[in-house]
Amino acid sequence: MSHHIVEFKNVSFCYPDGTQALKDISFRITHGESVGIIGANGAGKSTLLMHLNGYLMPTSGTVNIGDVYLTKKTQQEIRRKVGIVFQNSDDQLFMPTVYEDVAFGPLNLGLDEAAVRERVDFALNLVNGLELKNKPPHHLSCGQKSAVAIASVIAMEPDILAMDEPAANLDPRSRRLLINLLKTFEHSKIIASHDLDLIMDVCRRCIVVRDGAVAADGPVMEILTDKTLLEENHLELPLSLQR
Ligand SMILES: Nc1ncnc2c1ncn2[C@@H]1O[C@H](COP(=O)(O)OP(=O)(O)OP(=O)(O)O)[C@@H](O)[C@H]1O
Ligand SMILES: [Mg+2]
Known about the structure:
Layout: E1 6-14, E2 20-29, E3 34-38, H1 45-49, E4 60-65, E5 68-69, H2 75-81, E6 82-85, H3 98-108, H4 113-126, H5 142-154, E7 160-164, H6 172-184, E8 188-192, H7 196-202, E9 205-210, E10 213-219, H8 220-224, H9 227-232
Helix pairs in contact: 3-4, 3-5, 4-5
């Protein structure tokens, strides 16, 4: 299923203030792969994720989602395929109620009212957020906002799921719920996180980003047991591997 392939070729990105946040990044993620993106604060993980759906466009190089190159023209098409949960839920939630926020994407897909309601209920139920339906998002706790942001992306039924620190605000039970949810998502998924235990649990492959470049890319257990590599990148062994 080639439409689930993600390919970065020599992607560099420079913010308007001159910060060179990505430097010549290349990788290819095939259908069904689960890939963790790890690295120190400021390494470029969020910047990289924001290139997956054209929220940011490469300064040079190309991003390819399936058979489609990311351009201004294809951005909308690509956004239907790639769902991103941003690091800050406030960037994602902007409607008067939780229901409307989760319904926003499916409505834009042109689904009828009943189908939208079904998707919203399904997605909110998955994150244990059904009772939040009528609340304004800005009245939610941080963890509740994260759960709703995740639901709003799940409701789009994306081919490719990208999440930026999805568990950062979640309590242990909600984090476990999310891990189980991610494990059942059978398409490609890309997760940036400092929660290396979550990465180890959910991902088979791991890419280490350092100073905007790929410092390592390999099987998750090889990367997450390499103490020297982790320390060079301001990271530590996953808690479950520490003694
Ligand atoms: N809007 C912006 N304008 C200028 N520089 C930015 C902007 N956003 C991020 N940066 C810079 O780009 C670099 C990469 O930032 P990014 O947010 O991608 O890092 P990160 O790996 O996600 O970090 P964290 O672990 O803290 O989430 C950093 O040097 C950061 O200061
Ligand atoms: Mg980040």
